[in-house]
Specification:
Blueprint: E1 11-13, E2 18-21, E3 27-29, H1 41-50, H2 52-64, E4 72-74, E5 80-82
Antiparallel strand pairs: 1-2, 2-3, 4-5
Helix pairs in contact: 1-2
Length: 94
């Protein structure tokens, strides 16, 4: 299955729930063995903390696409920030 998130240019899967950074070869977890529950949050954090040049490239690509589809956008400080996902709240009378 092809990944649409541009972060996958910097990581590759080695097992169902583990990925390896292509730059430093460190292993990271996707959080679950089940694809539906996997997340790239740790991968984003790794790039921001350890590979600032790669992180800046990723942020520029997200800014060009206005951050849509990537779950984050560039902030004024140059760090990534997560965009809140809106949920519909339904009140039920008791």
């Amino acid at each position: 299955m092809a990944h649409s998130n541009p972060i996958w240019q910097f990581f590759h899967k080695v097992r169902d729930s583990k990925v390896k950074c292509k730059d430093c070869n460190k292993l990271y977890s996707l959080g679950s063995d089940h694809p539906r529950f996997q997340t790239v949050t740790g991968l984003r954090s790794h790039l921001a903390k350890c590979h600032n040049d790669i992180n800046e490239t990723l942020l520029k690509r997200a800014a060009e696409n206005d951050g849509f589809g990537f779950g984050f956008g560039a902030s004024s400080a140059g760090q990534f920030r997560f965009r809140p996902k809106l949920k519909k709240v339904v009140s039920v009378g008791l």
